[in-house]
Design brief:
Blueprint: H1 3-6, E1 19-21, E2 31-34, H2 47-52, E3 57-60, E4 70-72, H3 76-87, E5 96-101, H4 106-117, E6 122-126, E7 129-132, E8 135-137, H5 146-158, E9 163-167, H6 170-174, E10 185-188, H7 196-199, H8 202-214, E11 219-222, H9 228-232, E12 238-242, E13 249-256, E14 261-267, E15 270-276, H10 281-296, H11 301-306, E16 318-320, E17 327-331, H12 336-346, E18 354-358, H13 369-379, E19 382-385, H14 395-402, E20 412-414, H15 418-428, E21 434-438, E22 445-448, E23 451-454, H16 457-470
Helix pairs in contact: 3-5, 4-10, 12-13, 13-14, 15-16
Length: 471
């Protein structure tokens, strides 16, 4: 795109713009470098670096002495979103965007929604990156920033997608990343304490989540969540799912087996009997949220049900093959509510002992840590507390908070190194035991003292299983 096409009122020297960038580390030759200001960083200070790296032009808030063209505006931060939309030819208008929020279940419900519609027609954005039938790629945040979001939308449009199922985090609304996005549907799974390091109060947290329902055409609400009535009043156009016959989609009964879940539900006065490969009560609710959303969009129910066998959520209840008589599960659960829901399921299984490996992320909400520690210790025969993305926070301090209310328990160990913790759990497993490795799912990194270290719980479990076989 020509610079003059991107800025119709610009009168200076024209050049071809091949991309947009706010980061000199990822800037490519031919990019327009946007000199936005952050809380601690002013990109104007990096103009020389941007030019050395091949920037074709600049967007600035002041006159600068450079040899490449620049466009001066009053506030580049305020212009940024419009520039991205224009550069990518307004891709958001060519997609039906489904926003999915909630303390737990965002990833599962988003990925289930994508698979029910079909990944050839529906993209996914969230914790597990962004993907459709044509590709799968990583993202830096659950909900990407403006500098990535419109590019991702454009990639989906180019791949033939008509829909996007995206996780919309409370922090994305808090920081204004989604304020100009229109959603065809807004879905909420549940609300519990989370991200209070950012929001400070539960009320602020809920308020940010409510923004989705101000920006959507229709809300899909969980009638069994304790905050249901608060969200119901935000948008006049809602449908509900839950366990009461008064709901638009009514879960009549379900039966969770070791390898599948049988569900009977009622929609528009007709009862359906389905088999889901997803396990746990929480996945009954996640599936019903996704079904309610897709049905409200006009999808034929049998099209959706035909896609049930393909359901799989990366990082959620991922079984690691042991070829032995014990079980290993890797799951992303890390909040009090998520853990309660997980243990609701595992406690119904005919297993011997539950062995849990878990930590809590550093520089994140510290108030939930003691609740997490107690829930795990109350439900596990052996709990192993370890690190989980401690960032720059002291691991000992994090674990001390997690064990605040369980000092007199005798069923837990502290093994700070996560590799050693996973190995200890698997080496301790006996016949019919279940090892739960929680908090990271299939993420492939650890954030420790400013470094991003390669680390994957599933890979670590496989290594420990192989080592156990040799002992």
């Amino acid at each position: 795109m020509k610079l003059t096409n991107l800025f119709p009122n610009y009168q200076g020297r024209d050049v071809e713009i091949s991309g947009l960038s706010i980061n000199t580390q990822t800037l490519k030759k031919g990019d327009l470098f946007l000199c936005i200001k952050g809380a601690t960083v002013d990109r104007h200070d990096y103009i020389d670096q941007a030019i050395r790296n091949g920037a074709a032009a600049l967007l600035t808030a002041k006159d600068v002495d450079v040899d490449i063209p620049y466009v001066k505006v009053e506030n580049p931060n305020l212009e940024m979103e419009d520039i991205y939309r224009r550069f990518y030819n307004n891709p958001q208008n060519k997609l039906k965007i489904i926003g999915i929020t909630g303390t737990d279940g965002k990833t599962s419900t988003s990925m289930i929604t994508q698979k029910l519609i079909g990944s050839d027609k529906c993209g996914y954005i969230g914790t597990n990156g962004y993907s459709c039938a044509a590709f799968k790629r990583d993202t830096d945040n659950t909900t990407p920033g403006i500098d990535s979001l419109y590019r991702i939308f454009s990639e989906f449009v180019d791949s033939g997608c008509e829909y996007v199922a995206m996780e919309t985090s409370s922090e994305a609304f808090f920081y204004g990343r989604l304020k100009n996005i229109s959603f065809v549907r807004g879905v909420i799974t549940n609300v519990d304490r989370e991200h209070l390091n950012t929001h400070k109060t539960l009320e602020n947290y809920i308020s940010c989540k409510k923004q989705l329902f101000n920006q959507c055409q229709m809300g899909i609400l969980n009638a069994n969540d304790k905050y249901y009535n608060e969200f119901k009043t935000v948008n006049d156009n809602n449908i509900s799912y839950g366990y009461q016959c008064s709901n638009d989609l009514y879960i009549r009964k379900y039966d969770i087996l070791a390898d599948k879940t049988l569900i009977d539900f009622v929609y528009q006065n007709k009862e359906y009997h389905i088999t889901s490969p997803l396990l746990g009560k929480f996945n009954v609710e996640n599936l019903m949220a996704a079904l309610a959303c897709c049905l409200s969009l006009g999808f034929e129910i049998y099209h959706l049900l035909n896609n049930l066998p393909a359901l799989f959520v990366d990082g959620r209840m991922n079984s690691v093959n042991t070829d032995d008589d014990y079980y290993v599960i890797v799951d992303y659960a890390h909040t009090p509510n998520g853990l309660r829901r997980l243990f609701e399921f595992t406690n119904t299984l005919n297993i011997n002992r539950t062995i849990v490996v878990i930590g809590q992320a550093g520089e994140r909400d510290p108030y939930k840590r003691k609740d997490v520690g107690k829930i795990v210790a109350d439900n596990a025969q052996l709990a192993i507390f370890t690190y989980e993305d401690p960032r720059n926070e002291d691991v000992d301090s994090i674990i001390e908070m997690m064990t605040t209310d369980i000092k007199d328990y005798d069923n837990y160990l502290i093994i700070k190194d996560r590799h050693e913790a996973i190995e200890k759990a698997i080496m301790s497993a006996q016949k019919n035991d279940m090892v739960l490795i929680l908090g990271k799912g299939n993420e492939d990194y650890q954030l420790i003292k400013g470094e991003c270290i390669d680390f994957n719980d599933i890979d670590e479990a496989k290594k420990a299983i192989a080592k156990k076989k040799k002992v």
